[in-house]
Amino acid sequence: MSTTTDAAQSAATMQLMKWFAILAVVASLSTTVSGCDMEVPHHRVGNWRKNPNYLVRLQYREKGGDAAAAQLNSCMVAGTPATLQCSGHGYCKQWNPDVVAPHPLSFCVCDRDWADPECRTRRKSQRTSFLLSLFGGFLGADYFYLGFPLWAAVKLITLGGLGFWWVVDIVRTGAGPVYAHNYRVANDLPHWIYVVSTVTLFAMVGFIVSLESYFSYRRQKRNDAMKLQESEESRRLAPGAEELNGPYCYTGGLQRSGANGFNGYGAVLGRPKF
């Protein structure tokens, strides 16, 4: 009993000493590292600000005008005719309608097929991207059109993700405007056309697959029947078949073998064929 107690106390003492050693190592490391002078990288300007400013890159400048006189858009230039505002592809809208000022802050509201602050960039078409996804999506045609060549190459190599990626992109591009490499595509695809064309395509695919399955089943059954008939004919024409089945006889103009000519008790044997 005393030996067991001593062993338990010894194990507890060793465990306690191990924890004390770990704490001592951690304490020594903390006191040693606390005085380190490490050079931490820092920057005064955010990395996102180092990229060209979107509004500056696409700001409006009159023909022959100085770059220093560039404005956010043509809405901020006094005296610009309404037909020339927003590059003729939109109209100006005041940011805050409650502000009364000679030149309030305004932005361009672009037409459906145009984008950027001055409505100078033509959007990709949702209708075109949907049709490319529907008929050429397994080859990555939709991603090539939207400006994603790497994803298009992956989709081409995998044949549309073995069909799953192709189906997902059909639903994704048809359900709403997706992003191209720069802007969303133009919302020029009526929703009912997307629904009707998608349902029709997959119904046709299902019908073709079912027809192919049916004709394949018929061919298989026909081949099985022909093999069975050939096997039966080869068995009848094989040497020794007459000894197994008996002599061939004629009964009423029909050829019968001796063994198979019986129909039961009292059946009449056919006349032997010489």
Protein traits:
mainly alpha; three-stranded antiparallel beta sheet; two-stranded antiparallel ribbon; 10 helices
What does this protein look like?
The chain is mainly α and 274 residues long. The protein has helices at residues 2-33, 47-50, 54-57, 126-136, 141-146, 149-157, 159-162, 164-175, 191-237, 241-245, and strands at 90-94, 106-110, 114-115, 121-122, 248-251, 254-257, 271-272. Strands 6-5-7 form a three-stranded antiparallel sheet, with no helix packed on it. Strands 1-2 form a two-stranded antiparallel sheet. It has a two-stranded antiparallel ribbon with strand order 3-4. Helix 4 (126-136) packs antiparallel against helix 8 (164-175) and helix 8 (164-175) runs antiparallel to helix 9. The chain is flat, with a radius of gyration of 43 Å. The model is unreliable at 254-262 (pLDDT under 50).
